[in-house]
Amino acid sequence: MALAAIQTQILLPSKNGGRVPAAELLMIGYGAKQHIRRNALQHLSQEITMTKKSGSFSLEESLVELLIQGHIDREEAMLHALHPDDVDAMLRAKGHR
């Protein structure tokens, strides 16, 4: 009942050397609590979409921002994306190819 958010993070090789973090954040709402209680964790990615106004964001959104900012290359983003098609769609929507 006390869980407020879940954040995951991976470190990716930066194009400029070193590493850069890509993250995913799920702000816990009623739906997420129900999925966790029922051990239906596969539905948590849908909860990210539903709680965007509360601050949630997906790993794919983080990867797209890192790509646009020039921190990582496309191959690295696609390798680590859970849904590579979403990365392509977001890039197209932002005018990047």
What's the short version?
The chain is an alpha+beta fold and 97 residues long.
How is the secondary structure organized here?
Blueprint lengths: L4 E9 L5 E9 L2 H8 L6 H7 L8 H10 L5 H7 L3 H10 L4
Antiparallel strand pairs: 1-2
Contiguous uncertain segments of 5+ residues = none
Query: In the CATH classification, which architecture applies?
Result: 3-Layer(aba) Sandwich
CATH topology-level name? Rossmann fold
Number of spatially distinct domains: 1
Structural class, by secondary structure, is alpha+beta
Give the % helix. 40-55%
Order of helices and strands: EEHHHHH
Strand content: 15-25%
Q: Compute the CA-based radius of gyration.
A: 14 Å
Distance between the termini: 42 Å
Please describe what this structure looks like.
With 97 residues, the protein is of the alpha+beta class. The chain has a single domain (5-93), classed as Rossmann fold. The chain is built from five helices and two strands, in the order ββααααα. The protein has a two-stranded antiparallel sheet. Helix 3 (59-68) packs across helix 5 (84-93). It is elongated and about 40 Å long.
Identify the notable features of this structure and list them briefly.
19% strand, alpha+beta, 97 residues, two-stranded antiparallel ribbon, elongated, single chain, Rossmann fold
